[in-house]
Specification:
about 220 residues, alpha/beta, Rossmann fold, 2 domains, 6-stranded parallel β-sheet, about 40% helix, about 15% strand, globular
Length: about 220
């Protein structure tokens, strides 16, 4: 059986230790060959990021430097137009048609799949790994169309992710990390006190990059 390649997308605005721990924990639990962190160039489902796509990719590259099993993938930054996950998976599938792919998403993101571009095709291109806090459930959060896919594809057997290239839905419990990019940006907007508050929440190389490039700083008219 081939070890799957994990795909973990996001705005990473900025990338923080919670992202890295999630990627490492899922990789270890599911015996993935690696986890690719894919910053969205132009995300279609949320407000525009604060940092540019190039800056966010640079921060991902700094964050994973020297971290075994984590890789940066800039294809959504380099590709013009909206960053649709289905297009990214098609590109990865073209590179290695038989390799299992595992798209790693949070439970809230999974529940929003019916709003995604060509969402039914995601299951044909990759397995879906839904990461959840221990004790959490999806309950009634799924639309009828997504619930039907869940009933058809859900498995509790992690080896299914290795046995074929795509098509399964697997739930992976993860350790909770109370870190968010929103709160980090809010702290950094306070200036020097905020920098001290977020130290340790994101890799030091990323914090140094933020400082050098004056990202997430207070507005000039802020008091």
């Amino acid at each position: 059986m081939n070890a799957p390649l994990g795909i973990f997308g996001g705005t990473f605005d900025p990338i923080h230790c919670g992202h890295l721990e999630l990627a490492r924990e899922v990789r270890a639990a599911l015996h993935l060959a690696a986890v690719r962190l894919v910053p969205a160039g132009d995300p279609p489902h949320r407000a525009a990021p604060v940092a540019t796509a190039t800056q966010r990719l640079a921060m991902v590259e700094l964050a994973i430097e020297g971290v075994a099993g984590l890789e940066a993938d800039g294809r959504e930054v380099d590709r013009p137009g909206r960053s649709y996950t289905v297009t990214t998976l098609e590109s990865l599938r073209d590179e290695a048609p038989a390799r299992p792919l595992a798209l790693i998403v949070g439970a809230d993101t999974f529940a929003d799949f019916p709003e995604w571009h060509r969402w039914h095709e995601l299951f044909l291109l990759a397995h879906i790994v839904v990461v959840m806090r221990p004790g959490s459930t999806l309950d009634d959060a799924l639309s009828p169309a997504l619930a039907a896919e869940w009933q058809r594809r859900h498995t509790t057997d992690a080896t299914a992710l290795h046995a074929r290239p795509a098509g399964a839905i697997f739930v992976q419990a993860i350790t909770p990390h109370d870190i968010s990019a929103n709160s980090i940006r809010a702290q950094l907007a306070r200036g020097s006190p905020g920098v001290a508050a977020v130290r340790g929440l994101l890799p030091s190389a990323v914090l140094a990059y933020i400082d050098r490039n004056q990202l997430y700083r207070p507005r000039p008219d802020a008091t």
